[in-house]
Sequence to fold (262 residues):
Amino acid sequence: MNIKDVAERSGLPAKTIRYYEEIGLIRPARAENGYRHFAEADLHKLTFLGRARSLGFSIGDCRTLLALYEDHSRASADVKRLAEDHLDRIDRKLAELAAMRDTLAHLVRSCAGDGRPDCPILADLAGTPDA
Amino acid sequence: MNIKDVAERSGLPAKTIRYYEEIGLIRPARAENGYRHFAEADLHKLTFLGRARSLGFSIGDCRTLLALYEDHSRASADVKRLAEDHLDRIDRKLAELAAMRDTLAHLVRSCAGDGRPDCPILADLAGTPDA
DNA sequence: ATAGGCCTTCCAGCCACGGGAAGGTCAAGG
DNA sequence: CCTTGACCTTCCCGTGGCTGGAAGGCCTAT
Fold:
């Protein structure tokens, strides 16, 4: 397969696939004309990567996950630990975003949103609760 | 005030303050020796920026918010619209993250996490629900 | 005089790509 | 055989919002 075919079948942009090769996540073969030539195993790795990325794993995590995936003598505990760490990061991010949303939603509700200049949102940002 | 004082009082790193000047968010005066000289108004703007950034507003949004803050003939509707748009983005991000967390949490729960290689997490990533 | 703690600018790097230029290659149609 | 157009290649720059570090100037206290 050429790059466009794996792009379509993996759902990843061709640019991303080239980037993944550049940083050593995949090593597709080369045809005589210099074109990348992808085997089914490459496509498989790319879909793996796409799925891992869509779950928010970093490129570094993906590298480790791919190595674990290919190491048939791995311990599932290693995979689980990685996933748990990532889950913790996601939970922290969620809490942070939820706090933002609550504050913001409260401010939005308290703003008249009309033609007058008085605005509790700006007042909050300015640290002057009444302005 | 010199930069370290405003850094402490605004809670922003000195590097960030220099960056904000570079991109035109603030315009502190200069002393004869080249040092930045911050007035209370500058400090005020910086705390405004810090608060807005902590609520997740982009630098572009902050620029607009600061302009609205300084325009005493603004309409609060303009501020509210900006905040509502941002709130929508946060809500979308939250939904995306929550979906990630749910999938990931499910996978983590289903993984034995012992010394054996069998791992539902890797199996899911590989698209082979039983491996 | 010197030490150290400020300050300045500039350059480079982070993450995970995306855009676009300049040029090579290949298959189909006239 | 030639052209067209769809591929492919590498290379470099830009994104956002900083952060780190180097090289050098300034200021105060001892």
